[in-house]
Design goal:
eight-stranded mixed beta sheet; 15 helices; binds 2-acetamido-2-deoxy-beta-D-glucopyranose; Inosine/uridine_hydrolase_dom; Inosine/uridine-preferring nucleoside hydrolase; Ribo_hydro-like; hydrolase
């Protein structure tokens, strides 16, 4: 490889990134990264997509390790300065699979061994208050320019919804959301009806408040959508040994193919319907009961709520997710070499020999 051609390539890539930066989609992620490694892959996609400007990440589980792992993953993917909010009170809880006695804990291990970003090891208390971080980030954004992606419990979003004027904005929570948020994308529930973990396992009445009272467009990714899209196995087999998200998949599910609830939700948030998704409904709205059960209500007057279905096969989408994880992970592993390789071939190259 000739260094000066590599330099020219990197210059071109940088010029391209600057040119397209204006068109990037503003995302805020709200993650319960703790009991499932698919949150880690969702973070990877949001942090590495050339189509995304990741404004902030809020954590909706209580563990210090969730906040620290989020910061570690962001730092690994060149987002060391992305602010992280963490739900209070913080605990030192670690995941234990008391249901199937099968899945492993990953958050503390990723937090410890990839420590970095705004919250290095032992500094979870320094995380933003999630509601303050939402209000600050939204107030600083262009009107109608932000997509929020909810990948877990809805407590932080309820706090935003119920918030009042502060130093960052004179607007109430609902008015700030109406002004700034173009779309709330929610992984949760089942469609057209269901009873799903993210909606019932924390505080289901909080879920009901957010979903029933949110003042704007919502798109839902149900349990059934991600359940049949398997990914992560190829990432584990072919990814860089030093990657924290690959490690999360190994610690958690030992490299077996894993459902992709959160990654496909982020994929929709990034790409929109594209060739991958279609709406399951034309009209109506999602209604959540105080116990967390949800059901679609037919209503010709409501046109800004949808649930997603896949337009492509489960295997095709799973393979595309693994391709995205691998490409991003290898670029992060060695930016200069990988930029050169993908520029030449227009395809990611995975130098297996280096493993
Ligand atoms: C968590 O553990 C750290 C390190 O041992 C300790 O300093 C901190 O007080 C603990 N936090 C909680 C909420 O128990
Ligand atoms: C994905 O898998 C589910 C469950 O096996 C099946 O019902 C569905 O039709 C599949 N979707 C596609 C688009 O093939």
């Amino acid at each position: 490889m000739i260094p000066c051609s590599m330099f020219a390539t990197v210059a071109l890539v940088v010029a391209f990134l600057i040119q397209t930066a204006a068109a990037r989609k503003n995302l805020i992620l709200d993650t319960d990264i703790f009991s499932d490694c698919d949150d880690a892959a969702a973070l990877l996609l949001a942090a590495t997509s050339p189509d995304v400007k990741l404004l902030a990440v809020n954590v909706n589980s209580h563990s210090t390790y969730s906040a620290l792992a989020t910061s570690a993953i962001l730092a690994h993917y060149d987002h060391a300065h992305t602010p992280v909010g963490a739900r209070r009170p913080l605990t030192n809880d670690t995941f234990f699979d008391a249901k199937d006695f099968e899945l492993g804990e990953f958050a503390s291990k990723v937090a410890r061994h990839w420590s970095g970003g705004t919250l290095p090891w032992g500094t979870a208390e320094k995380a933003w208050d999630p509601i303050t971080l939402y209000r600050r980030t939204l107030a600083a954004s262009e009107d109608g320019s932000v997509s929020i992606v909810s990948l877990g419990f809805l407590d932080n979003l309820a706090g935003l919804l119920d918030s009042t004027a502060d130093d960052y904005s004179d607007l109430s929570g609902p008015d700030l959301i109406s002004a700034k948020v173009s779309e709330l994308v929610v992984m949760g529930g089942g469609y057209p009806s269901g009873y799903e973990f993210n909606f019932f396992a924390d505080d289901p009445s909080t879920t009901a408040h957010v979903i029933n009272d949110w003042p704007g467009r919502m798109v839902f990714s149900g349990f059934e959508l991600g359940q049949s899209v398997m990914s992560g196995d190829r990432f584990v087999a072919e990814g860089p040994p030093g990657d924290p998200v690959r490690a999360a998949y190994i610690y958690h599910s030992y490299g077996a193919p894993h459902p992709s609830w959160d990654p496909i939700t982020v994929l929709y948030a990034i790409r929109g319907l594209s060739d991958t998704f279609e709406y399951g409904n034309r009209r109506g709205y999602n209604h959540v009961e105080p116990d967390g059960t949800n059901a679609w209500v037919d209503d010709a007057n409501v046109r800004n709520q949808h649930w997603l279905r896949l337009k492509l096969g489960n295997d095709t989408v799973g393979a595309e997710l693994d391709r995205l994880y691998l490409e991003a992970a290898w670029v992060a592993d060695n930016p200069l070499v990988q930029a050169e390789m993908s520029w030449r071939s227009h395809r990611p190259i995975f130098p297996k020999a280096e493993l």
